[in-house]
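Q: Hi! Curious about what Fungal lipase-type domain-containing protein looks like structurally. Here's the sequence.
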Amino acid sequence: EVAWFGDKHPNDAIHSICVKRSTKTVTLVFRGTVNTHNWKNNMKFGMLKQYNPITNEIYKGRSDHVNIHCGFGLYLLRRWNSGLHSNNLQEILEKCNTIGREMAPDGKFRLSIAGHSLGGALATIASFYASADKRFTAVAPVRVFTFAAPRVGDQSFLDAYRHLEQTGRLFHARFMNCRDIVPLIPWCSFQGRKDGRWYKHVGLQVKLH
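A: Let's find out. The predicted structure is below.
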């Protein structure tokens, strides 16, 4: 059942929120690349420093910030209005929580996130922040299923993401076709060769032949 369709900004993070009432599951799905604007953002290989929601936890490689693909980050982590305190992702997750609590007033609902290609990159970023939010892990880990998703962050992102997986708050199955180039890119930011900011994959890789 489709509960919400986010197409307010046609060139940005088009998404839908679906519900399965029998299992009290909310599923957030992101659309892939469809237009020139999307392709332009996809090619912004630089990295942006972003807030690390688990910076107060102890884990190997812990950092105050994580570096995320500039183009992908623009869709979710920028603020639509400088007068607002929330970014697009926070608004999307708030909508997921509202819909989830309509089904389960006690907050005990499950969250799944999915996406293909660009949508897979956005699903990866969304899952990182969602799984660090206790509202979405009360019953089960946030489950993520991506298809042909590119890399989205560097080692600092991988370390934080892996910690969320190892502590049972996140499960990510990353499906890829061996003949598809998209999951193999990007390799590094424009400054990557100098400062070591190479892109890293996250999640459990599942190869489809």
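A: A fun detail: The chain is about 30% helix and 25% strand.
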